[in-house]
Automatic annotation (TrEMBL):
Membrane-spanning parts: none
Xref: InterPro entries: ATPase_Atu1862_pred, HerA-like, HerA_central, P-loop_NTPase
Name of the protein: Helicase HerA central domain-containing protein
Native source organism of the sequence: Methylorubrum extorquens DSM 13060
Coiled coil: none
Pfam family, one: DUF87
Domain Helicase HerA central: 16-78
PANTHER family: HELICASE MJ1565-RELATED (PTHR42957:SF1)
Amino acid sequence: MGYEIDLGRAGDKPGMMDLTELLATRLLVQGNSGSGKSHLLRRLLEQSAGLVQQAIIDPEGDFVTLAERYGHVVIEADGNEAELLRIAARVREHRVSVVLSLEGLDAEDQMRAAAAFLGGLFDADRSLWYPMLVVVDEAQLFAPAAAGEVSDEARRLSLGAMTNLMCRGRKRGLAGIIATQRLAKLAKNVAAEASNFLMGRTFLDIDMARAADLLGLDRRGAEMFRDLARGHFVGLGPALSKRPLPIAIGPTVTESRNAAPDLLPLPTMGEEARALIMTASAEEEARPLPAPRPKPVRAPGPDVLVQLANYRPPVRDDLPEEEPMDPAEREAAMAEILASVLADSDAAACTPATLYQDFTVRCRIRRIGGEAMGLPEFKRRLAVARAGVQGATAEGPGWERAQEIAAGLPEDLAGLFLLIARTALEGSPCPSDAALAEAYGTSSAGRARRMLGYLEERGAIVMRRDLRGAPIIAVPDLDAETGPQIGAAAVLPLRRRRP
């Protein structure tokens, strides 16, 4: 036998919902703030109050007014998760309808409290698996699609409890009814388990598209959600209708404590208005002011990698002080360490940050004293080292100009450009794909070739081919170009130039 509850009007007919079918298939409600979601949930709860046990997860305290008229027990959550687990077990045992009010808790505590309570309902003994409507208002708070400001642990607990409710709750008699302002903010694996939908007014394209997709409407049909009036929804599902059905939600007996107030005229005060707000009354003087919560101020500090590199263990008094290293000796030692870092077989595929960590560790092993080299300076030296410049080329004015050009390029392209500049200044053959990839810090030759195209767009280089089709790269600002690439013709991405 089915039980139908009256949601309102569907055209000239009553908008009915099959309660028995709802218990087996779950419900999802979407609508922007002010669209009437809470009013819809209140109407549904009032119409079914005498037919089935109910539990409401209420983040704003909107539904506590159900207690006086329909006998719901209001549970004021105080952050005691163990107690909420025991209360939830007793709720299922004694079949009492309840409202879990989370008003007054911050976002993370709300998530933890909801997770504990839903977990208690879910873990009840098999003999207590009676039918129950579990309504979760503002469900995007408890099953967010992306990480937010709360801790990962709180999000994991809350999302797991919501997933259990919507995915596995049916066998335990739990019928999830979730309402959200935005489908895009709700975890997909939670929303996907609902088979009944009531979609209200919404304006964002992504939410309209998802709502239309759930209701089987085309893109033109999605535009209707912008025009829905407050308290009007489009329903679809086995408990509602086999086709999208517009429903105007009917009135409710109880009201929310947080209902929007009517407009009232402002009081006329005149000159005394300033005195009223700037002068404390005797009652205010006697009442202690709450201490403001201090805001953590984080002073900007040096790069984390530099902090790690500069760390030194506490100096023991019984050890002799180390003599300062000669600057020239220190510079030679760091150059030797950098060369050893680049000599590793996997250095070509490592990022500059990874190589920097290796470099700083080796400096500490060699006991290189003084201030550690910063990451930007390391990247500059790394680019020069990967270019392999030496001898007369390193001392000439062309190389100095090449370094000035490299300084104006993105950091990851400096090494690639300097390699090309060095070969162009020397007149050496164009570097191979493998050499270009290593200079860029990748193992992908295709990625290195794409970066050559980017350098050409910036005007830093010009690529052409000789009569045999071998690539040549010119650097206009240096008035130099490489020789033809040896053994690999027609591999660089040359563009067809317009006449």
